[in-house]
Design goal:
By secondary structure, the chain is α/β, with parallel strands linked by helices. Helices cover 33% and strands 14% of the residues. It has 14 helices and 11 strands. The strands form 2 sheets. A 7-stranded mixed sheet has the order 3-4-1-5-6-2-7, with helices on both faces. β9 and β10 form a beta hairpin. The chain is globular and about 60 Å long. 44% of the residues are buried.
Length: 497
């Protein structure tokens, strides 16, 4: 029997209401009812290694991060796939190796040569927004009257509409949120008045004499002072995490929010930021919230890009086909046998380093062995720690190991470190005949990763893209140091160096 629908004015009103209800149901319940899904918060600190109590740091106390770890899961072996902010963040937000999406050069795609994401690759906030989440990206502490979203630093073209704002306060009643909160982290120690500012906030600063340095740094007054500020930056981040938690609890959001705490890469120091040793790639990763195991310590290898798939799974959103991220909280999670990292051009400084890490071994391949590891780089050369190191070298204050690791004129094409015996990666075993079988295995593993992912950085960066990005980097300013470095990079390339 066919029903006759009489289309009265009330019919159209009701139909519109029904359509609106269906749309609302689609937005806020597909897949699953979004209001019942957890809020997801990424707290991301800049330039910081895991100097927190729960990771074994003894000099300072970090009660808030330690509390997160006690109430959630701590990943002891978490690593970034890139040791510099824009490449790391490009990988994190897409769940893809930066080398697989063409975002592997720092601050690239900013000039007239733009970079587009490969087909099918989408930033996580956009996926969550379409699933009914309010998406936001803010900083802490935020500046009074701050508008716009906080740091993104993505090396590709993206739609700002993937973010609804810089705070979750604007969301609809009952709407879950995905939030990123950016912390200055280790960058605070580089300011002119960094010590006084941290003293004002923290009350008392860490005594430089208590610092425990890795063997490749000299115990000079300047280096120890900088190291103490590094630890105080961790104390400041710890305090800020406590304040973020306090807000969530006050707004009765804590119990339904999964919190991820990470850093974008390791500390900005000579062998840290921009390099693939532990100091540059090893990061804290603590996850706390509903459904997350409490008081658990994970020893398996994970990559920072795994936040993408894990967050999508928490929200009930299907992982896009081809996403290289893994859901580390899945019941059927298969641990990674190895993790990979890549360093390419950093600002004006051309480089190409690749690494593969297993439970025991770290293998690195340097594509420019005829260049020194600390090539000229305007950004890093003006860091207090690098200024102090170069002054120590000039004053003859470095021992043989420190000189060999920090200031050689060239570097080995390959490096191999036994992590079970050499936590600071100071003894290169690559040339030792005893370890050639290990070398062959790790070479093959790295080559497979480069082919399968694929690694778009296997060839040198086209000069057109380099020139485009350098023009954007310089802008309208005339900087003789940067311009000289650019000229040097081009000369070395012509010379095959």
């Amino acid at each position: 029997m066919r029903m006759n629908l009489i289309k009265t004015p009330d019919f159209w009103v009701n139909l519109r209401a029904l359509f609106a209800l269906a749309l609302s149901w689609t937005l806020f319940s597909t897949p699953g009812r979004a209001a019942d899904r957890p809020n997801i918060l990424w707290i991301i600190a800049e330039d910081m290694s895991p100097h927190f109590g729960c990771y074994g740091e003894k000099v300072i106390q970090t009660p808030q991060v330690d509390r997160l770890a006690n109430e959630g899961t701590l990943f002891r072996r978490a690593y970034v796939t890139a040791p510099i902010c824009s490449t790391s963040r490009s990988a994190l937000i897409t769940g893809m190796y930066q080398t697989a999406i063409g975002a592997h050069h720092h601050r690239s795609g900013r000039g007239h040569v733009r970079l587009e994401l490969p087909a099918g690759v989408q930033p996580v906030p956009g996926l969550l927004k379409r699933a009914g989440y309010w998406t936001c990206n803010g900083s802490f502490p935020s500046k009074p009257g701050a508008k716009g979203i906080a740091k993104t630093d993505y090396n590709f073209q993206w739609d700002p509409a993937i973010y609804d704002g810089n705070d979750w306060a604007g969301r609809a009643a009952g709407q879950p949120f995905f939030a990123q909160i950016q912390l200055n982290g280790g960058k605070v120690r580089d300011g002119k008045d960094a010590a006084e500012e941290m003293r004002r906030v923290l009350g008392k600063l860490t005594d430089p004499a208590t610092g425990v340095l890795p063997p490749y740094y000299p115990r000079t007054e300047a280096i120890l002072a900088d190291w103490a500020l590094t630890l105080d930056a961790c104390r400041l981040v710890d305090q800020q995490i406590g304040e973020i938690r306090e807000r969530l609890e006050k707004e009765r959001l804590w119990e339904n929010t999964v919190v991820f705490f990470i850093t974008d890469h390791g500390v900005s120091h000579a062998r840290g930021k921009q390099f693939l040793y532990d100091e540059g790639t090893h990061i804290p990763l603590v996850v706390c919230g509903p459904g997350v195991a409490q008081g658990k310590v994970r020893e398996d290898l994970v990559e920072h890009i795994d936040l993408a798939a894990t967050s999508l799974a928490l929200a009930g959103v299907a992982r896009p086909s081809g996403m290289q991220s893994r859901d580390v909280l899945a019941a059927d999670y298969q641990p990674r046998e190895a993790v990979f990292a890549a360093r390419d051009r950093a600002d004006e400084t051309v480089d190409r380093i690749r690494s593969v890490r297993t439970e025991r071994w770290l293998y690195l391949r340097n594509s420019y062995p005829e260049r020194p590891p600390l090539q000229p780089n305007h950004y890093k050369d003006h860091k207090p720690c690098l200024i102090a190191l170069r002054a120590a070298e000039a004053a003859g204050q470095l021992d043989a190991l420190q000189t060999a690791l920090l200031f050689p004129l060239t570097r080995p094409k390959e490096e191999l470190y036994d992590l079970s015996k050499d936590a600071h990666q100071v003894r290169n075993l690559a040339a030792d005949a005893v370890y050639q079988r290990v070398m062959e295995e790790l070479r093959s593993r790295l080559e497979r990763w480069e082919t399968e992912t694929p690694d778009l950085g296997r060839s040198p960066e086209p000069e057109t893209q380099y020139d485009s990005d350098m023009a954007e980097y310089l802008g309208k300013r005339h900087n003789p140091e940067i311009e000289a470095n650019i000229a040097l990079m081009k000369r070395w390339a012509r010379e095959g160096k």
